[in-house]
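Suppose you are handed a protein chain with no further information: no name, no annotation, nothing but its sequence. What can you learn? This example shows the usual starting point.
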Amino acid sequence: MGTPSVQSQVSAEEWKLRVDLAACYRLVAHYGWSDLVFTHISARIPGPEHHFLINPYGLMFDEITASSLVKVDQQCNKLIDSPYPVNPAGFVIHSAVHEARENAGCVLHTHTRAGVAVSAQKAGILPLSQQSTFVLASLAYHAYEGVAFRDEEKPRLQADLGQANFLVLRNHGLLVVGKTIADAFLSMYTFEATCQIQIGAQAGGELTHVNPQIVQGVSEAMRVQTGGLGGSFVWPALIRKLNRIDPSYQE
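A reasonable first move is to predict its three-dimensional structure. Written in structure tokens, the prediction is:
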């Protein structure tokens, strides 16, 4: 998009975060999870200030670069000059999570067809697949209150999320919290697959649910199976894939 590079204006740590977050936006577009310009992925910049990076409102996800990401504080003030605005609804949701959760290195929110469809189902996520058991191990729900641009919704969203890493926003979509960008992407991959499988299974015959004892014991299995794997194995492979497609996210 011709955005001037900000690499010289930020620390090496922030630049690496920017590159990874831009890559995450491109991958979300690649996998078909974007909703034109209307969802968000944010990454917290390490430090006591609770500053974070979010997408420039108006750019498609496959246009976003490391330099075009907008750096904001908890009051949505831009900390580096940018010609792009920030979506107020996106800011409210993401700032609420970053404010409440010190371990929220990355917050990823989507409006996919499968995700919204399941969010509208009274029973929510059902134990129908291996993927669903990982989600159910750390799942919460938040009732729909309209477009999320009012600060007064923040405390309720924070209370509903608690320490969960997967959040169903009723009648709205999906949200995940990850310690890293890689963790958040892998969590959303699992969340989205869970919803797609559920919608597909419901279109067929009688459903078989996973044994509740297996669901109850999956927290430890999730820790063993995914602890470090997102960053160590899956994420580097995804970056290699993205670099073959279009490495311009690094600009």
